[in-house]
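Hey,

Quick one before I head out. I ran the complex with glutathione overnight. Inputs first:
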Amino acid sequence: MILQAVLALLEKEVSFKKRITNIHSTNGDQNEPWFMRMNPNGTVPVLKDGDKIVCESDDIIDYIDRHYHSGFTLVPDKFSDAGKEVARLRDVFNNVQYEIITFGVIRNPELSVTGPKIPVSPAAMKKRIEMMLTSQTAYIKSMSERHPDLRDSYRAKLEAKTSRIQKTTDVDQIREAMKKCKVVFDDVEQLLGNLKKKYGIPDVWLVGPRFTAADVTFTILLHRLELLGLESRYFPQDKRPHIHDYYQRLLERKSLQEVLKEEKRIMVIMMSTMLKRKLPYVAAVVAIGVAIGAAFFTMKH
Ligand SMILES: N[C@@H](CCC(=O)N[C@@H](CS)C(=O)NCC(=O)O)C(=O)O
């Protein structure tokens, strides 16, 4: 998830340059040879720091935490109790099937409580998924033929992407992903309650009084569920008061406020680009681009 990396960069108060691309267009940066040479998985986000390239959100967060000592320590020593708990929780949150839930709920809005706040119609989402399975895959295939040195990476990407996207069209899999996500919320609710008792303070984070990488990952999950109009199912004040209160505290954090502002800025930029090109499904491209987004970061020294 791109926003995790952005949030971590903001929490660490490091400066960076960003390059934003629309991963849902046929030839988004992530499918281009220069990008595949940086990240053979062809996924975002990617961080470039001098000659060093880091792919995968978690690795990016670990890298900036290790190399930049401003802000909070997000990843405690992996042998400490806190470090082990951060790793455990990141694993739990990374196993939530974001893509299936996001695409699935937009396409089947009856699965949402208040309706997705992303202005994409189910029909536009259906077309978008079809486009991904047709023109995007055709583009990746053509690139694999034109760039023999990258053929294996393109082929692996094609396989992974097709199977991921196909899963988003199966309502049973969507419901299953949502059910599993609920179990995560039951566990976190209990965890926060226990931590409040243990530390005797009301404003605990997931591993204690300090904000860590586990909170970064959970923040973005909460934000995504809110965008999908699922907050009253997953963290309503009456049933999951600890998570509800945790999210209110998150919303007061400067880093998350910046991320939300950035999300809006990207929406405006993408909207005007799409309008200029007179592309169809403007709302779908813009909104999904924002929600799922895409970015490549370069550190400023
Ligand atoms: N585990 C990876 C997942 C990366 C990933 O799947 N990124 C998606 C966007 S959330 C992507 O780049 N999709 C574009 C594509 O597959 O063409 C990470 O956390 O960095």
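The two ends are 25 Å apart (CA to CA).

Talk tomorrow,
K.
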